[in-house]
Amino acid sequence: GAGGGGAGRPPLLSLSQLAAVRSEIELLDSALQQAAGPALDVAPPPLILCEADAHLGRPTLEALLSSAGYDGTGGLLPPPGGAHRTPAQLLDGVEVLGLYFSASWCAPCVETTPLLASAYASLRSRGKGLELLLVPQDRSEAAFDEYRGRMPWPSLTLGGQLPAALMGHYQVTSLPALVLLDKSGALISTDGVRLLRRHARAFPWSCVPPPQTPHLHPLYERLLRTAPVDPGQAHDLPRYLPLDFLSQPAAATSLAEAVSVLRECDLLCTTTAVQAHSVLNTNFLKVALIQHTFTCALPMPKPEGEGVGAVLSERVCLWRTPMLYAQQLDLMLLLQRICEHFAASALSIDHTRSLDGVRMAVPACIAAVADVVMRQIATDKPSRVCVRLRGTHDSSGYTIGAAELARQAAAVPVHTPELNTARTCALDYFAAQASLPQVYGWESSNALEVGTVRWVRSIAQDLAFPADIGNVAQYIRDVDHLLIKNYPEFRCFRDVCFYFKLFLNPQLEAFPSKAPYSQRQAQLTFYFYQQHFYVGGYATGGAPQLLSAKPRVRRGEVTPLHRFSSRADPNAYTRPTRIEGEDDLLHMWELPDFGDKDVENASAKALGQHDAELLLSYLTVPYLRIPLVVSFFSSEDRIHLLQVPKLQALLDAVLFEPGGHLPARSAELEPQDVPASAPELLGTPHHLLLHELCRSPKTLVEGVLRLGHPATGPD
Fold this sequence. Notes:
The chain is mainly alpha-helical and 715 residues long. The protein has 26 helices and seven strands.
């Protein structure tokens, strides 16, 4: 058994044989090491656990320079007259290192370099640890050598991979650029040019993090949300559509151009209104646009009839161009929408004296255009509404009336010539219809008046509609009744007329309270109750507000005549005494001094009794007041009085309040007695100021020049 087991085992090695095997292994290991080269001691990558350890993953600038071949003594190019330095020597004692990316072909770089050199020398002279290093971006060695010779700091050599790597690492996209690093290699700023030029005193531009004070907020952990938070459904903002107010034609010379102007105005108003989230002052923009449309871009309709003078009849009115019923309806729908836009915007801003003329004249212009369009007889299928409004062989037609406009507009200041011209044209247009029976007289009564009943009843009879008084009221009120359902232009005309009369209401309290209204809120709803119409609109979360073109006064109260009393009327300064003429001033014991009684200075009594009597006597003759008042203030001893606010407002009113309107039918008439038994003959066709400039410019101009000379003398 022992012999068999010994025969199956391998023979044992002797000690000499083991020594020979070990020698062979050592020789093989030595050969492998020689074939693989010298052993590398590679450290494992750093472990980065927080922001404070982020610098461990970034190579230092010294490592970057060494890896690119700048570790020798001749790697970095020294400044002119300087010695060669290694990266370690360059960074020794440096607090802030700036990498200056620049090139000689870059004009801003050439301008910036001497400024940086001055700041660099200033900081170095004060012992600051600042060093700059040029990272060249030149295209030729000659240009590079010439350019770096202007700099007192070292530079990298031109070419190679390091300049491009540094630009990519610090995301430099434009020249010049100065990247500032602290001594640890952390980035301070990529806007080093600004820091070095404007904030050199703040060197080394380091910021101290705010102290951590969790002990001062013991309940902060209750505000921390550890569970996922649902942000809700994503909400996309509306798309912004650019507004081009210059896209509207400058002036319309044909009916097609007029329709284009109105359509563009309506589109711009709607686009402006729906982008209130992006466009500021939308209500002011809409009011200004509509004012420009009806006072500059569109011509006003010319009056018709025997009372029109030859000057007004020379040109044909484009609004009387033959048109189809579809064109007529399209125009009325546009006018209704634009009128709603204007009303919504005008009631969304403060009602001031300066805006009062716009609120009054623009609806009058829209109403005049709507009236002339409604009086057109369509060439294909005439509307019975329009036929009866214009009149037939057995009916003279109807008018909406504008007597209140003439009275209100006399005391409203108008500072722009185009607005005054449009106001005058609207007055002349409606004045030519003064002999016709009136419809829609909402300025005097909310009841179902005779003229309106006759007009609507004649339409119903022509169309075989029920014509009893109950249905007549429903035809005006109900948008789903027969008349408006089949003739939508009736509703358009009704709404435009109501807004025209609403903005003539002399009672400020009758208007809706100021709020950001929309065009939809400006749509009118008519009610008929106990033989009276009630109009609603401008709902702000609840029931619509009731609108009235007639002042609402209690029994015993005096009905207001104007929203803003005239400042050119002597009664505005002599209340409660009523002044009808110059003689009434002689019976006043004390005249106003136009000074502010609450201020103890020289202007507390601006005028003495003699000057006050003289000035007020000028105001009693409106047709002569402009040259008289201008001459009053143009003297050297009275020019200083215009620093008093009341006198400033008085002079402005004297110049820019239009005064009474002289209708075209009375243009050739003259007063026959003094005082005039017909005061309307003392009015002017356009404006008191324009009348003076046309009839007697010398007196007014000389007075204005005398007024301006003392005023500009002290300057």
